[in-house]
Model the fold of this input.
Amino acid sequence: MPVVSAPGKIILLGEHAVVFGKPAVAMGIDMRLTCRVTEGRHNMVNGQPLNGRYHAYVAAAIRDHWSGRPLDIAIESKIPSGSGLGSSAALAVALLGAMSQMRGGIDEEGVARAAFDVESTVQGRASPLDTSTSSHGQGIFVDSVPGNDLLWHVKRDSRQWYVHHCPVPDLTFVVGFTGIRAPTGPLVAKVKRYVDRTRFAREVVDEIGEITTEGAKRLQDHDVVALGKLMTRDHNLLAILGVSSPELQRLVDAAIPFSYGAKLTGAGGGGSMIALTDRPEKVSEAIARRGGVPHIVRTGIDGVRAEAIDG
Done:
């Protein structure tokens, strides 16, 4: 009876642009999703028969990456669904990690690759950022060229990503959840249409890539002032791409007076924003006053891992 968990994530810089092969930086956070898996007579999810429409990630993972008996899957998540904090990636990673455990042990790279396949199947167009971060934990730097601390290389159609380990300094973030659950797939498709149609959108994506490269350097230098400014610039560019929302903007505006920088994180359209700060209580209060749900999160945590079985 494998019990395997995987973390959610925040994207520090580079969301949406990473789908087009640009760099991105993400970190695992101390919100986790756990899958408890046993073999059974039928594929079940939390006591209900597997439904391909409502359990799309589970269905794709079983169909494409499992050849054994039907699975009875119990899922417990501390990651709000549709929050931009990687709930779907954590689900795919935890479930595939449990399948890997049933075959003899968790293969971190194998889980990351399979989970990216699942997200690509369900969403239509994705990057390996979320699934690699959930699999590896700590920090991830994804780029189109290889560098130091390379973990794995992923190809998809004409795109490729080199996934690197990124050391994470001791930083404090506050997540502000809007309460709006926005599916990733339609937002990714929206940006792709914009980029396909206009040179301006392609230039915005290029600028996000440049900001991310600079931000990765500032992260290594522990230069939180410069890093925060880059985060806020990134948010403004993502707003130009049409993936912010009035609710997200209110929370970003509320957090900025008490932060080095703030931005949406994940697909946008709702979901969550993040603020880099050394005044987390002040930021949390400001976010709550604007109707958001604040969470002070810890970074530098484990990726996919087996958990002890109760009893």
Summary: The chain has a mean pLDDT of 93. DSSP finds nine helices and 13 strands in the chain. Residues 195 and 201 are 5 Å apart (CA to CA).
